[in-house]
Amino acid sequence: MKYILVLGDGMADWPLEALGGKTPLQAAYKPTLDMLSKKSTMGMVKTVPQGMPAGSDVANLSVFGFDPKRYYTGRSPLEAISMGLNLSQEDTALRCNLVTLSAEEDYGQKTMVDYSAGEITTEESTQLMEAIAQGLNREGISFHPGISYRHCLIWHNGPLDIQLTPPHDISGKTIGPFLPKGPGAELALKLMELSCNILKEHPINQKRIAKGLNPATSIWLWGQGKKPSVPLFAEKYGLVGSVISAVDLIKGIGIVSGMRSVDVEGATGNIHTNFKGKAEAALEELRNGRDFVYIHIEAPDECGHQGLLNEKVRSIELIDSLVIDTLIKGLEGLDDYRLMVLPDHPTPIAIKTHCADPVPFMIYDSRQKDIVDDKAVYSEAYAQSTGLHISQGHTLMDLLLER
């Protein structure tokens, strides 16, 4: 038996007037998912425990089968592990976004124009982060380039209880009320302010401005945490697994739990990602003896954060046609398999950020030949109507693996 999990990050949403009261999942043309749903187990799952932040870190830990209340130590350490950074027990890792802020002189009066600096390329951002490291590294502080706008700060003996806000939560807002607070806030804010001077005249930004692209005008720190310790997936479930993602966070969860992280050429973490390449890489992993593959697709989440309704619907359609359809065709003739599809959390267009609402899951078993419900479609409303509700997200893996 083979197991495949396809996670459409932020794919769930709320009904929208612009879609005639439908959600993007309901509005999207997704014939393969809807066909499979008629033979599948469907329901809703609560991936974010009560009182915990509605982030991809918490939610994906749940989906991987790890109780966030027990194992969550912060987002950035997982990203740091994926980047190959060695963390000591005394190190605090922080996510360092490259962002676009408005041009007011007073830092606190600036507005969060773009939390991703126009989805800056990795080639460009690496050069910018090298300049940041050269200008801001000091004893106990080191900056490290990652992918696109997502980078890392390692702060030796850095505070865990510093109050920091994810930049995608304050798009279009004045940043003053969301600047660092609490222990370590003075240094964090100083680093953010100093970064503006380094980035302002950098040739990369000048070229981006000339092209009409958003420049990276500041760093933004958030997502602090310590080195995590989670069980090995193979020991917990008896399966050898691989993870496929363009996002360091998801790679990090896979790596720390003993999975192989597979890089796919053209995987970007946005709607221009190599959808089909991810599915083909998963098939190759299964053919080469892996028991389980976790495929993560960031595109719907990015579209949700940016309020791009048509693109979010399109990203779901691309997941259906280029990922799910490719998997189903490629799995013909192989072992029996079980396929689970779900989001980690909703990223509603209306609020452009995450929420902790339950999300719809679908589990298809290739041994199931008969139609369970010919009216079934993969959507929030249908999954809710089944009456199957998983209240502890980390137990959903047991349902997929028939434990």
Task: Kindly describe this structure.
The protein has 403 residues and is an alpha/beta fold. The chain folds into two domains: 2-69 and 231-400, Alkaline Phosphatase, subunit A (3-Layer(aba) Sandwich); 82-225, no CATH class. 34% of the residues lie in helices and 19% in strands. The chain is built from 15 helices and 13 strands. The strands form two sheets. The chain has an eight-stranded mixed beta sheet, sandwiched between helices. Strands 3, 4, 5, 6 and 7 form a five-stranded antiparallel beta sheet that branches. Strand 8 (241-244), helix 10 and strand 9 form a beta-alpha-beta unit. The radius of gyration is 21 Å and the shape is globular. It starts with a strand and ends with a helix. The relative contact order is 0.24.
Q: Can I get a quick summary?
A:
By secondary structure, this protein is α/β, with parallel strands linked by helices. The chain is built from 15 helices and 13 strands. It has 2 domains: 2-69 and 231-400, Alkaline Phosphatase, subunit A (3-Layer(aba) Sandwich); 82-225, no CATH class.
Protein traits:
403 residues; Alkaline Phosphatase, subunit A; five-stranded antiparallel β-sheet; globular
How is this fold's topology laid out?
Elements: E1 2-8, H1 24-27, H2 31-37, E2 41-45, H3 56-64, H4 68-71, H5 76-82, E3 91-101, E4 112-114, H6 122-136, E5 141-147, E6 150-156, H7 185-200, H8 203-210, E7 218-225, H9 233-237, E8 241-244, H10 248-256, E9 260-262, H11 275-287, E10 292-297, H12 299-305, H13 309-331, E11 337-342, E12 359-365, H14 380-385, E13 389-390, H15 396-400
Parallel strand pairs: 1-10, 1-11, 2-13, 8-9, 8-10
Antiparallel strand pairs: 2-12, 3-4, 3-6, 3-7, 5-6, 11-12
Helix pairs in contact: 3-10, 5-10, 6-7, 11-13, 12-13
